Amino acid sequence: MAKFYLTNAIAYVNAGPHMGHALELCQGDALTRYHRMLGDDVRFLVGTDEHGSKIAQVAKEKGLEPQALADQNAALFVEMNEKFGAANDDFIRTTSELHKRGAQKVWTRIAEAGKFYEKEYEGKYCTGCEAFILDKDLVEGKCAIHLREPEVLKEKNIFFKLSEYTEAIKAKVLSGELEIRPNSRRNEFLSFLEEGLQDVSFSRPKTSLKWGIQVPGYEDQVMYVWCDALTNYLTALGYADDDSLVEKFWPADVHLIGKDIIRFHCGIWIGMLLAAELPLPKAVYVHGFVTSEGQKMSKSLGNVVDPMELVNKYGADPVRYYLLREIPSDGDGDFSRDRFKVVYKDELQNTLGNLVRRMLTLAIKNFEGKVPQGDGALQVSIDKAWAGFHEGFLGFDMKGALESVMELARAGNLYVDQEKPWELAKTDRARLELVLGNLIVLCRELGKMLQPVIPETSQKILTQLGEDQLILGEALFPPLED
Question: Are 252 and 233 in contact (CB under 8 A)?
């Protein structure tokens, strides 16, 4: 049995969940469910990032203590996971004592390797990114992501010698030891490495920021939020206290992240692991952003989509399906309510739901719920779909995997149109049994393929298509209410 450890990027708790969080959750959950289908020993980690100046700032604006804000918003992410039916094995919070001890343990290993030094530094700091930004990366003096001018900070900090690891990290990427998908992101990161990595401030003085993890051996310093946050992938395995899960699951097989944090995960995190002499993750999968009606989501534009509201209205499975079917796994994609309704009606309700229901209705009516036996006429289509399905999931292309599923569903509907089983019921019972038997096999395979994507609906399909008895349950996808 192979092991498969996948981590999602932990969500920053300055606010509640948005569609980008929902997309990554669905991707991570589908990938890990797929590997459970393969029989792998799977561990799926999600969680929240709860330290840093942005948390302290937002908490102050709301009249809250930072911990109270973190507790409040972390609960929203737990709720989102439950609403979407995520099968995560753990939920790490960086304010937990377990995480704090583990982060300090990683720091101590890097310190013992002699990879820290103290330095007074003046630079431009973007609170949104929780990072110092070089002038060359500013656009008209503003952060390219958060579109606001960074503040100038002058502090005495502890720096990590990240610059020493430029060539080592480049070699890991080029050799494939550290795989970055898609290739466009890999090439983007390699281009970034050509400039050479810069040493990174890894601490903040408590006079500037109290909300963070204490730096071992320094009463007046807290850890830089990214140094703290990135260690969660290890600390969630009990790295601070018990290495049993670390030995079983580390290194991570996949870090699943958004495109805006590649440099942190492929640069800083890999440098930290090299310095601490810890094994590197095998792969980093990078997804894009979700826009709304063709535009970046913005409160001022009034186009912000609340993933919780969508699930409450339409159910988890349709929203999961849309995000994995319509949003390219490795690129940007758009959420449109009109498009959502088209996909729901055309693919889920008609192509899939009606196929299963029509076939079941005929089989139960004509064979009293017993399972008719086919002759394997649709096996070539089934095998082709499974090949495309596996290729998609193993290649971080869940959109492609789902296209293979829908091709199989369309093949089933075409077979129905060609064979006309409602007419066979009147003229040729033997042929009807073969046709419905073939369709039951096809629909059962569809149910299996959909397990990672729409698990609740998949279970309904497989329950109705029992090996010994057929059951006509409620419609898989009822009509939408506007």
Answer: yes
How far is CA 267 from each of CA 12, 90, 284, rounded to the nearest angstrom? 20, 25, 12
Q: Which of the pair, 21 or 153, is modelled with greater confidence? A: 21
List Cβ neighbours of 482 (8 Å cut-off, separation of 6 or more).
Answer: none
CA-wise closest residue to 254 among 181, 330, 332: 181
Q: Per-residue pLDDT tens for 53-104?
A: 899 999 999 999 999 999 999 999 999 999 999 999 999 999 999 999 999 9
**Contact criterion met (CB below 8 Å) for 411 and 352:** no
pTM: 0.93
Helix (H) / strand (E) element for 39: namely none
Q: Among this protein's residues, is 287 annotated catalytic? A: no
Catalytic residue among 3, 60, 119, 146: 146
Query: At residue 428, what is the residue type?
Result: D
Residue 160, φ and ψ in degrees, nearest 5:
-100, 135
Looking at domain 337-464, its CATH architecture is Orthogonal Bundle (1.10)
Q: Which sequence spans correspond to the domains of the chain?
A: 337-464
Decide if 269 contacts 275 (C-beta within 8 A). Answer: no
Q: 129 an active-site residue?
A: yes
Label residue 151 by pLDDT band (50, 70, 90): confident
Burial 441-476 (b: 16+ CB within 10 A, else e): bbbbbbbebbbbbbbebbebbbebbeeeebeeeeeb
Among candidate residues 35, 83, 99, 129, the one labeled active-site is 129
The pLDDT tens digits of the residues spanning 281-334 come to 999 999 999 998 887 876 666 677 899 999 999 999 999 999 999 999 999 999
Predicted confidence (pLDDT) per residue in 237-264, tens digit: 999 888 899 999 999 999 999 999 999 9
Choosing from 62, 296, 365, 420, the catalytic residue is 296
Flag the least confident range among 29-38, 92-101, 207-216.
207-216
End-to-end alpha carbon distance in the chain? 47
Dihedral of CA atoms 291, 297, 303, 304 in degrees, nearest 10, equals: 110
Neighbours of 17 (CB within 10 A): 21
Task: State whether residue 251 is helix, strand or coil.
Answer: coil
CA distance 207 to 229: 21
